[in-house]
Amino acid sequence: MAKKRKARNKGDAAKLEMTPMIDVVFQLLIFFIVTLKQEDILSHLNVSRPAPDSAPPPEKKDDKLLTIEVGRSAWVLNGTPYAGARGLAALDRKLTKMASYSKNASVIIKCTGDSPHSKLIKVLNICAREGMTNLSVFSM
Amino acid sequence: MRRKRSSDACDLDMTPMIDVVFQMIIFFIVTIKMDETKNEDIVLEDAAQSPLYEGKDPRTIVIEVDKRGWLSMNGAQMTTKQLKGIIKQRYNHFGAFPVMIRADRRTLHKDVRKVMDICSERGIWKIDFAAIKEHKKKHG
Known about the structure:
The structure holds two protein chains of two kinds.
Chain A: H1 2-11, H2 19-35, E1 41-48, E2 65-70, E3 74-77, E4 80-83, H3 87-101, E5 106-111, H4 117-129, E6 135-139
Parallel strand pairs in A: 2-5, 5-6
Antiparallel strand pairs in A: 2-3, 3-4
Chain B: H1 2-7, H2 15-31, E1 61-65, E2 71-73, E3 76-78, H3 80-94, E4 99-103, H4 109-121, E5 126-134
Parallel strand pairs in B: 1-4, 4-5
Antiparallel strand pairs in B: 1-2, 2-3
Helix pairs in contact in B: 3-4
């Protein structure tokens, strides 16, 4: 019986031992599945930053110039405050309307030191959607 | 002979399974990114309507600002002074380069401002802010 089996094994030499290879391959597979991390798709918001020493330009009553102040809890667009739960939606509508007049209006965004970064990003997002590219960020 | 064959019934055809497993391994090897050295604590703000970040320019340096205002680059935390030194040295060697700021949505503007001021001191006026265009993973 033993002799017979030996002979048979010699016959189909291509049949090699699969078990260790499958073990290793499964280990690799599990490693890659565990370390796989789905990345968020990122967007970028390009702004220009004036020199640190230059003061924000004087406010002009010019409709080509949009001034958005970003504060701790509210936005102020050309002197009109937008705060609260509906503030962002109202600001969005107003900005959309203003952008429809002139796409290349200069937008000046003034941020107070205690305003969260998310508020600035929200404004920049609206501006990016409306295709306004002339954005400068000032700090107050 | 017939009886023996029925006894090792577990000797099934491995070939299709190994094919599939190898395909999966190759998929995971190709998609894995080992060079991720970014701060996982930073929660970016959503900006769905902003342009897609493709990361084309290899000169870009990414500066991370977490919610406490701590700065880091490529996973290494640093002080404003150190960052200033790095920016200065790089600027002197290679000239202007794009800067991307990955700031947490809760970061106060005064901390983001520090980074922008350091960049504009060296004549880097264009600043990119990172935001999330589309979520791939769900986080709490």
